[in-house]
């Protein structure tokens, strides 16, 4: 008889689990690539606005079929990038820290979203005094706010976010202009103690890579192929992971780990450097 017979089984790793989420989105009614503020944008390349709308509508439908709440902010003429709602605010525990955009072409978006939040009774509403592109550069792990800088968000905005939101902030430096926002190179798979993230190490400075290795030893590391299609611009509810269809390697890896990847076609919106997460602001 085995000496282990009758002994209790060892610890079993917790399986990923979905939790209901509350998202805010804005339709791409006026989507176009009229200027270039990141390496993905080419005003000379054709854009199919109708296709962009279909892709956005399908993304919204995916969230709703998963049981998540989706609120929609009306689009404004003359703001073709307003579809990227993740850049509009960071919302934690009812407190709203509004955005302050670096590019003048997007500056007016902040006020439209501020009015939308104010109309819904958000009293703890603070507009950033430092350049702060919201969830484009802020990722909530459930315990700390990971904060990107290097191309858009001012490093001083990290301290401002800590003061306004009352949570610890960990600064990370981006070094590759293709990954101009944190949400193009990293996303949170599971929140809370023992949070798990996925990220592309080569998008970060050496010191930031060391910080991420120390904080998230079981992180999912993406390849260049998956990062270069904005595969890390994903949205996870803890189990279901919505990400660009082209990120096939990441899909396989996540499946092996017990997650449920949901590939979506977001190729038209990627012409502005956006993906599922860019289109999705979460109210935490």
From TrEMBL:
InterPro entries: DDAH-like. It comes from the Bacteria. SUPFAM superfamilies: Pentein. One of its GO terms (molecular function) is dimethylargininase activity. Keywords: Hydrolase. NCBIfam families: DiMArgaseDdahMtb. PANTHER family: DIMETHYLARGININASE, DIMETHYLARGININE DIMETHYLAMINOHYDROLASE. Belongs to the DDAH family. This is Dimethylargininase. It comes from Saccharopolyspora cebuensis. The gene is ddaH.
């Amino acid at each position: 008889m085995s000496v282990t017979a009758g002994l209790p089984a060892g610890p079993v790793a917790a399986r990923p689990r979905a939790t209901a989420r509350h998202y805010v989105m804005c339709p791409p009614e006026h989507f176009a690539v009229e200027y270039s503020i990141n390496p993905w944008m080419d005003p000379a390349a054709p854009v199919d606005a109708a296709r962009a709308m279909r892709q956005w509508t399908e993304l919204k439908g995916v969230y709703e079929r998963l049981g998540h709440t989706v609120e929609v902010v009306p689009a404004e003429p003359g703001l073709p990038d307003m579809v990227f709602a993740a850049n509009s605010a960071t919302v934690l525990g009812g407190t709203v820290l509004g955005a302050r955009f670096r590019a003048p072409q997007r500056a007016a978006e902040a006020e439209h979203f501020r009015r939308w939040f104010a109309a819904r009774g958000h009293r703890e509403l603070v507009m950033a005094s430092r350049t702060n592109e919201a969830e484009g550069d802020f990722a909530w792990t459930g315990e700390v706010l990971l904060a990107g800088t290097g191309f858009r968000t001012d490093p001083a905005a990290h301290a401002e976010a800590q003061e306004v939101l009352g949570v610890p902030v960990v600064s990370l430096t981006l070094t590759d202009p293709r990954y101009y926002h944190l949400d193009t190179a990293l996303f949170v798979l599971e929140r809370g103690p023992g949070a798990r993230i996925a990220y592309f190490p080569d998008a970060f400075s050496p010191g930031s890579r060391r910080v991420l290795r120390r904080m998230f030893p079981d992180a999912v590391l993406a390849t260049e192929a998956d990062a270069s299609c904005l595969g890390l611009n994903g949205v996870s509810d803890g189990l279901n992971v919505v990400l660009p269809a082209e990120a096939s390697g990441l899909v396989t890896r996540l499946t092996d780990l017990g997650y449920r990847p949901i590939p979506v076609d977001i190729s038209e919106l990627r012409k502005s450097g956006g993906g599922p997460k860019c289109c999705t602001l979460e109210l935490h």
